[in-house]
Design a protein that fits this description.
heterodimer, A: 111 residues, mainly beta, five-stranded mixed β-sheet, four-stranded antiparallel β-sheet, B: 112 residues, seven-stranded mixed β-sheet, 11 strands, 54% strand, globular
Protein backbone atom coordinates (compact mmCIF):
# COMPACT_ATOMS: atom_id res chain seq x y z
CA UNK A 1 0.00 0.00 0.00
CA UNK A 2 1.34 3.39 -0.99
CA UNK A 3 1.92 5.49 2.09
CA UNK A 4 3.54 8.39 0.29
CA UNK A 5 2.61 10.73 -2.56
CA UNK A 6 5.26 12.31 -4.78
CA UNK A 7 5.04 14.32 -8.00
CA UNK A 8 5.87 12.06 -10.96
CA UNK A 9 8.50 14.40 -12.38
CA UNK A 10 10.42 17.61 -11.73
CA UNK A 11 13.06 19.67 -13.48
CA UNK A 12 15.89 21.60 -11.87
CA UNK A 13 18.61 23.81 -13.30
CA UNK A 14 22.16 22.68 -12.74
CA UNK A 15 23.71 24.43 -9.75
CA UNK A 16 20.39 25.31 -8.21
CA UNK A 17 18.77 23.63 -5.21
CA UNK A 18 16.42 20.77 -5.99
CA UNK A 19 13.50 20.53 -3.56
CA UNK A 20 11.61 17.26 -3.80
CA UNK A 21 8.34 17.10 -1.85
CA UNK A 22 6.67 14.08 -0.32
CA UNK A 23 3.30 13.76 1.40
CA UNK A 24 2.84 11.09 4.05
CA UNK A 25 -0.30 12.24 5.85
CA UNK A 26 -0.98 8.84 7.47
CA UNK A 27 2.48 8.41 8.95
CA UNK A 28 2.59 6.77 12.37
CA UNK A 29 4.62 8.00 15.30
CA UNK A 30 7.18 5.21 14.99
CA UNK A 31 7.65 5.44 11.22
CA UNK A 32 10.77 6.96 9.73
CA UNK A 33 10.95 8.87 6.45
CA UNK A 34 13.59 7.47 4.10
CA UNK A 35 14.83 8.74 0.77
CA UNK A 36 16.51 6.68 -1.93
CA UNK A 37 17.40 7.43 -5.49
CA UNK A 38 17.97 5.26 -8.55
CA UNK A 39 20.13 6.47 -11.37
CA UNK A 40 19.10 4.85 -14.64
CA UNK A 41 19.09 1.07 -14.01
CA UNK A 42 21.61 1.07 -11.18
CA UNK A 43 20.76 -0.23 -7.74
CA UNK A 44 18.85 2.22 -5.53
CA UNK A 45 21.08 4.38 -3.39
CA UNK A 46 20.25 5.34 0.19
CA UNK A 47 20.29 9.12 0.68
CA UNK A 48 19.00 10.03 4.12
CA UNK A 49 16.36 9.25 6.71
CA UNK A 50 14.73 10.97 9.68
CA UNK A 51 12.08 10.56 12.34
CA UNK A 52 11.13 14.01 13.62
CA UNK A 53 14.05 16.38 13.33
CA UNK A 54 15.58 17.79 10.20
CA UNK A 55 18.61 15.87 9.04
CA UNK A 56 21.61 16.73 6.90
CA UNK A 57 24.43 14.67 5.48
CA UNK A 58 26.96 15.05 2.72
CA UNK A 59 24.39 14.26 0.07
CA UNK A 60 21.25 16.11 1.07
CA UNK A 61 19.04 17.68 3.71
CA UNK A 62 15.71 16.33 4.89
CA UNK A 63 13.11 18.75 6.21
CA UNK A 64 10.16 17.17 8.03
CA UNK A 65 7.18 19.32 8.94
CA UNK A 66 6.25 19.60 12.58
CA UNK A 67 3.11 17.49 12.12
CA UNK A 68 5.25 14.98 10.17
CA UNK A 69 2.67 14.77 7.39
CA UNK A 70 5.08 15.90 4.72
CA UNK A 71 8.77 16.27 4.05
CA UNK A 72 11.15 17.78 1.53
CA UNK A 73 14.44 16.40 0.29
CA UNK A 74 16.85 19.16 -0.65
CA UNK A 75 19.84 18.68 -2.93
CA UNK A 76 21.62 22.01 -2.33
CA UNK A 77 23.54 22.31 -5.60
CA UNK A 78 22.14 19.89 -8.15
CA UNK A 79 24.46 18.48 -10.80
CA UNK A 80 23.71 16.53 -13.96
CA UNK A 81 24.69 13.38 -12.06
CA UNK A 82 21.75 13.93 -9.71
CA UNK A 83 19.33 13.11 -12.53
CA UNK A 84 17.51 10.05 -11.15
CA UNK A 85 14.25 8.70 -9.75
CA UNK A 86 13.87 9.71 -6.11
CA UNK A 87 11.83 7.55 -3.77
CA UNK A 88 10.28 8.71 -0.51
CA UNK A 89 9.38 5.81 1.79
CA UNK A 90 7.92 5.64 5.27
CA UNK A 91 8.78 2.62 7.34
CA UNK A 92 9.01 1.45 10.90
CA UNK A 93 12.58 0.95 12.00
CA UNK A 94 13.68 -2.58 12.75
CA UNK A 95 13.59 -5.90 11.01
CA UNK A 96 10.51 -7.40 9.46
CA UNK A 97 9.48 -4.13 7.86
CA UNK A 98 10.72 -3.74 4.35
CA UNK A 99 11.04 -0.83 2.01
CA UNK A 100 8.04 -0.48 -0.26
CA UNK A 101 9.06 1.52 -3.32
CA UNK A 102 6.43 3.55 -5.09
CA UNK A 103 6.84 5.20 -8.51
CA UNK A 104 8.94 8.06 -7.06
CA UNK A 105 9.79 11.40 -8.65
CA UNK A 106 11.87 11.53 -11.80
CA UNK A 107 14.21 14.49 -11.34
CA UNK A 108 15.85 15.89 -14.44
CA UNK A 109 18.73 18.29 -13.84
CA UNK A 110 19.07 20.51 -16.87
CA UNK A 111 22.28 22.24 -18.02
CA UNK B 1 31.32 -0.03 -5.56
CA UNK B 2 28.60 -0.35 -2.90
CA UNK B 3 30.16 -3.39 -1.26
CA UNK B 4 27.25 -5.62 -2.24
CA UNK B 5 28.32 -7.97 -5.02
CA UNK B 6 25.87 -9.58 -7.41
CA UNK B 7 26.70 -12.14 -10.05
CA UNK B 8 26.20 -12.56 -12.89
CA UNK B 9 25.54 -9.04 -14.19
CA UNK B 10 23.64 -10.31 -17.20
CA UNK B 11 21.88 -13.58 -17.87
CA UNK B 12 20.00 -14.73 -20.95
CA UNK B 13 18.12 -17.99 -20.79
CA UNK B 14 15.20 -19.79 -22.39
CA UNK B 15 11.71 -20.29 -21.05
CA UNK B 16 11.35 -23.29 -18.78
CA UNK B 17 14.94 -23.11 -17.58
CA UNK B 18 16.29 -22.59 -14.07
CA UNK B 19 18.87 -20.01 -12.99
CA UNK B 20 20.65 -19.03 -9.80
CA UNK B 21 21.52 -15.47 -8.89
CA UNK B 22 24.16 -14.85 -6.28
CA UNK B 23 24.64 -12.04 -3.77
CA UNK B 24 27.46 -11.31 -1.35
CA UNK B 25 26.45 -8.73 1.26
CA UNK B 26 28.62 -5.94 2.61
CA UNK B 27 31.08 -7.06 5.22
CA UNK B 28 29.35 -7.12 8.59
CA UNK B 29 25.80 -7.02 7.25
CA UNK B 30 23.65 -9.89 8.45
CA UNK B 31 20.50 -9.15 6.47
CA UNK B 32 20.00 -9.78 2.78
CA UNK B 33 17.00 -8.64 0.75
CA UNK B 34 15.95 -9.50 -2.79
CA UNK B 35 13.98 -7.17 -5.05
CA UNK B 36 12.67 -7.55 -8.57
CA UNK B 37 12.31 -4.60 -10.91
CA UNK B 38 10.43 -5.00 -14.14
CA UNK B 39 9.31 -2.23 -16.47
CA UNK B 40 5.65 -2.37 -15.53
CA UNK B 41 5.93 -3.25 -11.83
CA UNK B 42 8.61 -1.07 -10.36
CA UNK B 43 10.69 -2.33 -7.45
CA UNK B 44 9.02 -5.29 -5.76
CA UNK B 45 10.25 -6.84 -2.52
CA UNK B 46 10.69 -10.60 -2.79
CA UNK B 47 12.27 -11.98 0.38
CA UNK B 48 14.53 -11.18 3.33
CA UNK B 49 17.05 -13.31 5.21
CA UNK B 50 18.73 -12.50 8.48
CA UNK B 51 21.75 -14.54 9.55
CA UNK B 52 20.61 -17.56 7.61
CA UNK B 53 16.94 -17.46 8.52
CA UNK B 54 14.03 -16.25 6.45
CA UNK B 55 12.60 -13.10 8.05
CA UNK B 56 10.01 -11.73 5.64
CA UNK B 57 8.38 -12.68 2.40
CA UNK B 58 6.93 -10.40 -0.20
CA UNK B 59 5.46 -11.09 -3.60
CA UNK B 60 7.70 -14.04 -4.33
CA UNK B 61 6.37 -16.67 -6.70
CA UNK B 62 6.38 -20.34 -5.71
CA UNK B 63 8.73 -20.98 -8.64
CA UNK B 64 11.29 -18.77 -6.88
CA UNK B 65 13.24 -19.69 -3.78
CA UNK B 66 16.16 -18.28 -1.87
CA UNK B 67 18.56 -19.13 0.89
CA UNK B 68 21.32 -17.54 2.90
CA UNK B 69 24.40 -19.59 3.64
CA UNK B 70 26.60 -19.65 6.78
CA UNK B 71 29.08 -17.26 5.12
CA UNK B 72 26.07 -14.92 4.67
CA UNK B 73 26.02 -14.93 0.91
CA UNK B 74 22.61 -15.54 -0.60
CA UNK B 75 21.26 -17.19 -3.70
CA UNK B 76 17.97 -16.61 -5.47
CA UNK B 77 16.78 -19.57 -7.52
CA UNK B 78 14.31 -19.00 -10.31
CA UNK B 79 12.80 -22.04 -12.02
CA UNK B 80 10.36 -22.80 -14.83
CA UNK B 81 11.19 -19.39 -16.19
CA UNK B 82 8.62 -17.43 -18.13
CA UNK B 83 8.98 -14.42 -20.40
CA UNK B 84 7.46 -12.24 -17.67
CA UNK B 85 10.31 -13.08 -15.31
CA UNK B 86 12.60 -10.90 -17.39
CA UNK B 87 13.65 -8.13 -15.03
CA UNK B 88 16.42 -6.61 -12.99
CA UNK B 89 16.99 -8.49 -9.75
CA UNK B 90 18.59 -6.52 -6.94
CA UNK B 91 20.08 -7.72 -3.73
CA UNK B 92 20.53 -5.40 -0.76
CA UNK B 93 22.08 -5.80 2.65
CA UNK B 94 21.91 -3.98 5.96
CA UNK B 95 23.57 -4.13 9.34
CA UNK B 96 20.40 -3.35 11.24
CA UNK B 97 16.81 -2.53 10.58
CA UNK B 98 16.90 1.20 11.06
CA UNK B 99 19.45 2.50 8.64
CA UNK B 100 19.09 2.23 4.91
CA UNK B 101 19.91 -0.75 2.80
CA UNK B 102 22.89 -0.93 0.49
CA UNK B 103 21.94 -2.25 -2.91
CA UNK B 104 24.06 -4.15 -5.37
CA UNK B 105 24.23 -3.28 -9.05
CA UNK B 106 21.76 -5.98 -9.97
CA UNK B 107 21.45 -8.93 -12.33
CA UNK B 108 19.62 -8.32 -15.57
CA UNK B 109 17.71 -11.49 -16.49
CA UNK B 110 16.35 -11.89 -19.97
CA UNK B 111 14.12 -14.87 -20.70
CA UNK B 112 13.69 -15.63 -24.39
Amino acid sequence: DAKTTQPPSMDCAEGRAANLPCNHSTISGNEYVYWYRQIHSQGPQYIIHGLKNNETNEMASLIITEDRKSSTLILPHATLRDTAVYYCIVRVGGYGQNFVFGPGTRLSVLP
Amino acid sequence: DSGVTQTPKHLITATGQRVTLRCSPRSGDLSVYWYQQSLDQGLQFLIQYYNGEERAKGNILERFSAQQFPDLHSELNLSSLELGDSALYFCASSVDGVFGYTFGSGTRLTVV
